[in-house]
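hi! just following up on the protien thing from before. the input was this:
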Amino acid sequence: MPPKLNRSRALFVLSKIDEILAWEKRKEMERDTKFVELGRYLCEVRAGQYWRLEKLKSFDELLERRFPGSRRKAYYLMSIHEHLPPQARKQLKEVGWTKGIELAKLARRDGQNFDCATWLHKARQMPKEDFKQEVERELTGRETEPWEIIYFKLYQSQMPIIERAIETAALMLGSDRSRGYCLEMICADFLAGANLDNGDPETLLFSMTRLFKFLPGEQKQAFLGGLSGKAS
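and the predicted 3d structure came back as:
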């Protein structure tokens, strides 16, 4: 039997849920607005070398203090300020700073030809992950693969080396690559190295194939040409 419905209590509880959700949405919009402002201030700190006021040696040293978990977020916020036109930055509170990162990628590529109105409209209408895939299709010219989110626990002591490895891979692959692609390259490189001597040739072939995928077009041709030359 269903419980007897207490209408007054039900109305109170449901109104509290709506109140909390509305508060959370307001706070999220305030946070996005502040993050856009933070990116502007960080760019000014770097340009004016304000870190010298704290007797620091570089801008990176300042970021290490202010963003001990990951400097990547700081660079993302700076990229939003540097590449998005002013009218887009003003409307970021409507779409969120994570979508702003994707917009900045397009603006960096297109420069003065960036179709700000169209992409802002898409950012407002589409869920975050769908919008991210839409931007990736635009940048790469191909459909993205099916994907899933994987969670696992990392200790704080493990974070610095993992972040540094992913940042290094991003420098090699290009900043438009996702962290998932960067992690794949790191893993493929590890598997290739682990199977060079007396390892599993199938695993080595699989790893080398994945690494080959990340090479630019000219390097792919040079690699294939080298293989053809040795075969002949």
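The chain has a mean pLDDT of 78.
Residues 9-144 form one domain.
cheers
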